[in-house]
Amino acid sequence: IEQNAYNDKEHSSSSRAAGMNGNGPSKFVDPLEDPLPGVGTYEDFNTIDWVREKTKDRDRHREITNKSKLSTVALLHSISDAFSGWLLMLLVGLMSGALAGGIDIAAHWLTDMKEGVCLIGFWFNHEHCCWTSNETTFKERDQCPQWQSWAELITGTSEGPFAYIMNYLMYIFWALLFAFLAVTLVRAFAPYACGSGIPEIKTILSGFIIRGYLGKWTLIIKTITLVLAVSSGLSLGKEGPLVHVACCCANILCHLFTKYRKNEAKRREVLSAAAAVGVSVAFGAPIGGVLFSLEEVSYYFPLKTLWRSFFAALVAAFTLRSINPFGNSRLVLFYVEFHAPWHMLELAPFILLGIFGGLWGALFIRANIAWCRRRKTTRLGHYPVMEVLVVTALTAVVAYPNSYTRMSGAELISELFNDCSLLDSSQLCGYKPVSPANTSETGVGNSLADRPAGEGLYTALWQLALALVFKIMVTVITFGMKVPSGLFIPSMAVGAIAGRLLGVGMEQLAYYHHDWFLFKGWCSPGADCITPGLYAMVGAAACLGGVTRMTVSLVVIMFELTGGLEYIVPLMAATMTSKWVADAFGREGIYEAHIRLNGYPFLEPKEEFEHSSLTVDVMRPRRSDPALAVLTQEGMTVEEVEALVESTRYSGFPVVVSQESQRLVGFVFRRDLLISIDNARKRQEGVVGASQVVFTEHAPAHAADAPPPLRLRGILDLSPFTVTDHTPMDITVDIFRKLGLRQCLVTHNGRLLGIITKKDILKHMAQIANRDPDSILFN
Fold it and tell me: How much is the pTM?
């Protein structure tokens, strides 16, 4: 710091920071020079330097605060700067809420389009079409003359085998058309719009840069193709992709504010909040969204981001509620209200559902990753359009005959969560009527006492069992195709089917054996003791927990979804059990598994580093490698520096006192170095290939006929992170995780020995786990 006293007098505060630690807006020591455009930015597929970004933001903030004491204009600028974060959150919430509402309405309409069309206006979906009709009966509330199936339109009759085949063929035709449009649009305009997007967003939030992943084309195409993919009847949901859509909105809106446009770390705080917004609009669960962002996707989540996420999620949920996409004043399709209390003994079947969820989660992850790896390594990956069409055709052909697989995932879950009331015409409520003498008035509100199952219910159970097998198999091959595909709804559907089957089984057991010691005392004849819909809800939570390994956020999302506050304990028991069971087979959730499959440089915070290696074992150069490429603080010419940069592909170079002493001075980034040299050649008189490059405080004396030196101290980071060669690797990994470092220099008694990058650590961890270290694709 004493050395920098001269800098302090000569420069403003921002340049002082650049002099002290090289992290501020970079300046040449020549005071006439402005900060260079491009210095301090990053290339595609690189990791950001969190420490440098945070320092840059702190300097900017300090400068604004200092100026605000001098004039009213500066004070107003300071207030607007402080307010800009909240304004950005408001805009993100409004935009995401509006898009989600549009996606919900369009998906609902196109899904119904597969079965028929509305005569009074083709833009009405089935439900809206029959709203104004006076001819609907309660038993057949979805039958009205204004809505005609394709068979009625084409053949004039809705009965008989010919009409059935006609409807079947039209269903397959529309499904294939929607899927073909979706995959073609993704392929032609935005390859990044496929999949769920959550693994990539986790990677981006950890500091990686994937240009275009959150761009405007990705947003437009993802929004359109998400509607098409969901409507095609494929086994996928729109919840994961909505997180990606919200993050695209946030990234695009960040460009309106300099503070977020120019600082990668600040932008990632906004993206964390946007992830919360995505879940908030997907499930109508604002608090669950904030917890999801905190537990599942975010890498760095300060308190300020928590408050902003909360605000943005609130705005988004309010916007969606104003649009009212389902026409029932609810934010989700499957809102239910149960009233019957649950009994302690029911915890046993709830835990059983937790075990099922954990087993299904572990099995699904293994099968899906094996299938995706096969897609990557075989010829299957070369034909994405063909693959989508084949899977869609298969899904449509098998799904149509069974009414539970024909309906959309959200409708199926809604049906399964539903509690049978007196007036329900659903097949799942096909119980035998009970004579009034048997029923006492113990049923609460509109709920009914337990009754014996009738023909309708047995048929429904068979169809559900077949639907369960079908969903389990088809979801494995669907997730990861080249269309937008979420995993929340299919996983919840699998769990809800299993839960409903178990719930009906328990209900019949309690009805026929209410004198067993298990049911004695709490389940008297004629009472409503067991609610099958509640089992479906617990099963849905257990399966989603098994696949994603969410716990806290999942329980909150589920009770925000269903309004069932008294069922928090069953949900917690099932979710925790499913996490433990799934963790016994492998610690990774589906998103972490996909991150590893794609080779993204992501240091998993949950993964323990158990090996006893030291930094000297992991650093480069190794014993057999050539020496470390370094720059000296003086004595190298522009030509020599350029030759060194050209001959290597490293993203930065340590600067040492001299080649002999190897005492460390600082670290300089390759991109900053090239931009500065290029700029100096254009703007500074006399800089040629023979000019000396100087990183020292004072330029050394040079001969009168020599060209003037090029002084680059401004771009030098004078406080790079260093560890000694005997630092244990587990501590080094912790430093990388907690500070979000790109690289760390290794010294021995103050002399530079080598360098460790994030990629070296990931390769080392892959080697320890007997995986291919070259699977980490990106530099």
Answer: 0.89
